[in-house]
């Protein structure tokens, strides 16, 4: 059984509300909403964020958001979801932060920058491997790189939430036929190197039952900061 050791990151309070803090800082150019409630276009990401997790905030989001697609609300604290929202799913996970000072990294020519021409393959790969939500415009979060087998995308990783001086590594996935080749680790180290070069700190989220991924993340310097819950919500 996997044993998780929680570590104390005293200066990382912005990560207690990562979606909101990203929506008001590094992802502000993709944000809609007001000074209390914000969200992304549904083709970018289902994440929503609140300055304060109050019933009024949930009600304001319900009136504000221009579609009926499910939204994704992440929290490190227990939150009661008001009845105007239906809870479709609650996903328990961990928030992990890179704890070391530097990483060793050599440029890897196999890692190819991904562009909008690759989006159809990116969606296909994420639908197969299910690393998290990925839509037509998710690539606009930036810095996506992939590994190809011929002309077929077989592994990729990118970034998603940018809360102030932190950058979330996301959509780390490998086609089942190409597991065991070290692709995920190569992509992770590339992302970590770029984030550190920008004077930011890498972090990520992972499903708490994904022991394989957690072990990989720990092996390259990540440590669990806190448990998190992802609430998949739909309007009632």
Structure description:
With 236 residues, the protein is of the alpha+beta class. It has two domains: 13-93, Aminopeptidase, CATH 3.40.630; 96-226, Aminopeptidase. The chain has five helices and eleven strands, in the order H-E-E-E-H-E-E-E-H-E-E-E-H-E-H-E. The model is unreliable at 3-12 (pLDDT under 50).
**In the CATH hierarchy, what is the superfamily of the largest domain?**
Gcn5-related N-acetyltransferase (GNAT)
Which architecture of the largest domain would the CATH scheme give at its second level? 3-Layer(aba) Sandwich
Distance between the termini: 39 Å
Please tell me the total number of domains: 2
Strand tally is 11
Query: What global shape is seen?
Result: globular
The Rg value, from CA coordinates, equals 17 Å
Q: What composes the largest sheet?
A: 11 strands, mixed
Q: Structural class, judged by helices and strands?
A: alpha+beta
CATH class bucket of the largest domain: Alpha Beta
The average pLDDT value, as a whole number, equals: 92
Low-confidence runs: 3-12
The number of helical segments is 5
Outline of the structure:
By secondary structure, the protein is of the alpha+beta class. It has helices at residues 18-23, 55-64, 119-129, 183-197, 211-219, and strands at residues 31-33, 37-40, 47-50, 71-75, 85-98, 112-113, 145-149, 152-159, 166-174, 201-207, 222-235. The protein has 2 domains: 13-93, Gcn5-related N-acetyltransferase (GNAT) (Aminopeptidase, 3-Layer(aba) Sandwich), CATH 3.40.630.30; 96-226, Gcn5-related N-acetyltransferase (GNAT) (Aminopeptidase, 3-Layer(aba) Sandwich), CATH 3.40.630.
């Amino acid at each position: 059984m996997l044993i998780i050791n929680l570590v104390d990151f005293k200066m990382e309070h912005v990560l207690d509300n990562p979606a909101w803090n990203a929506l008001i800082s590094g992802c502000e150019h993709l944000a809609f909403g007001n000074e209390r409630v914000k969200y992304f276009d549904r083709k970018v990401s289902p994440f929503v964020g609140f300055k304060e997790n109050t019933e009024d905030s949930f009600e304001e989001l319900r009136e504000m958001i221009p579609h009926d697609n499910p939204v994704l609300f992440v929290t490190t604290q227990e939150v009661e979801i008001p009845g105007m929202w239906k809870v479709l799913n609650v996903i328990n996970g961990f928030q992990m932060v890179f704890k070391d000072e530097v990483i060793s990294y050599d440029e890897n020519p196999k890692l190819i920058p991904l562009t909008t021409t690759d989006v159809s393959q990116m969606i296909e790969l994420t639908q197969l491997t299910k690393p998290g939500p990925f839509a037509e415009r998710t690539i606009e979060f930036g810095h996506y790189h992939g590994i190809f087998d011929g002309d077929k995308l077989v592994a990729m990783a990118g970034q998603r939430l940018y809360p102030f001086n932190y950058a979330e590594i996301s959509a780390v996935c490998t086609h089942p036929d190409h597991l065991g080749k070290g692709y995920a680790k190569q992509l992770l180290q590339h992302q970590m190197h770029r984030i550190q070069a920008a004077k930011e700190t890498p972090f990520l989220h992972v499903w708490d039952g994904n022991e394989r991924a957690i072990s990989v993340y720990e092996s390259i310097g990540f440590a669990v900061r806190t448990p998190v819950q992802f609430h998949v919500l739909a309007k009632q």
